[in-house]
Amino acid sequence: MEIDKAIRECDDRRLQTKYNNATYVVQRALALYSIEEVAFSFNGGKDSTVLLHILRAGYFLHKKGQNSANGDLKDFPIRTIYFESPCAFPEINSFTYDTAATYGLQIDTISLDFKSGLEALLKEKPIRAIFLGVRIGDPTAVGQEQFSPSSPGWPPFMRVNPILDWSYRDVWAFLLTCKVNYCSLYDQGYTSIGSIYDTVPNSLLCISNSSNKFKPAYLLADGRLERAGRAKRPSTSTGGQHPAESNGLTSQDSLKNSMLTASIIAVGDEILFGIVEDQLGPYLCRKLHCIGWSVFQHSVVHNNVSSFLQKSYIDSVAEEVERQKSKSDMVFIYGGVGPLHSDVSIAGIAKAFGVRLAPDEEFEEYLRHIIGDQCTGDRNEMAQLPEGITELWHHDKLSVPLIKCENVIILSATNVPELEKQWDCWIELAKSSDLLALLEPYVSKDVTTNLSDVEIAQPLSKLCLEFPDLYIGCYRKARYGSLIVSFKGKDLTRIESAIKALHKKFQPSAFVEMN
User: Fold this and answer.
1) Measured between alpha carbons, how far is 99 from 70 in angstroms, rounded to an integer?
2) Is there a smaller number of Cβ atoms within 10 Å at the N or the C end of the chain?
3) What is the pLDDT averaged over residues 82-107?
4) Hey, which CATH number is domain 1-169, 3.40.50.620, 3.40.50.2300, 3.40.640.10, 3.40.50.300?
């Protein structure tokens, strides 16, 4: 058969391994269930197109194993389900029915929603298992295995996921190696296709100096960004921008813009034991203030010091991440990242989001390029990332990509120069993807006085009420030294007004401005 032959003759060993594993899952399913008891959910997308040909090859190998294959299996006996929607792209519908005619698919077209359609179908047909083109990273893939019973509240059937562990790169390597047809939208810059209302070409494939021409989907460099084209189309009646330009965050409420907050989590016993002075947290605070963000909290969490305590320290990280991710717009976490027994940060983040750790093949390949044969596949814990919520942010200046799990940014820096490089790269990547709101930076002025705390306490409290938009704080560099009053905010005029108001409450020479 042409699919099996194409894969076995190619030089891509990883693709061959993926193909062998996927067809094995198909053959296992066909050994467990009769042809009448299985079905294939086809939607015309790239993943289900791969699955179609994996099923054709798997069925061929299954029959060959029974010594009943004649080498000319033109018909595809597995029942095919297509959920037709008025919101689907015309190109998807055309490709689906053309494919059905080409490969002799027994296609059942269902116009109901997925759940209702399955309930009706399973009442009518003796279907016990359904092949799905789900991959790790898909929103519906969280918690699934290659064989997973349907979720509570759904009609009972076995979900069979032969390509669950395939990456974006694997999908396109298969389609191009086997030279099979796929939906024409993928050659127009679409990388992940939903409905006509929530899908646009991926702006990362936009050809320079052109607002409406895109490179084909298989040229997307980072497969983690395949869903970057899932964005609402602008209304044509308002003369909006080209759809690709609306990817990501482009506008926010002005009040929200003035109070975006971040939390910082440091993971490391060496900080809590006083062995190492944490310099990364203060650096991040300064950098965040420079882009107008307020730091809500900076905390330090234990990591593992003995294998017996590892689980409790994963829980400690998970609890802190869960607490901060709901309170802040962005959370930065550093420390505890790596293959050592004490590196519990990524496991803690996964637990905070209620997902499991799963092998990330793109990250594993990246690590193998850096550390060579020391990277040992599934045994390499560094390649295990939170399932379904992880994005890898690559930059030419970084040896290891930044890891983003929803609103949590994982930093691998161990010193300020490394952090400075990662911060600059993160700012550049976030700005280019319209995922970062750059606000008015914080500005500050300090004044010093020899007045006692008692003398200044009540007037300062009143001043805070008069200027609620400013942060007004006090500190001393030495217990019996001068008191420093610090004013921070985003409006220098307001700060100067507050300082003048403070002067009026005391003798003219009571306060001196500091440089």
Assistant:
1) 23
2) C
3) 90
4) 3.40.50.620
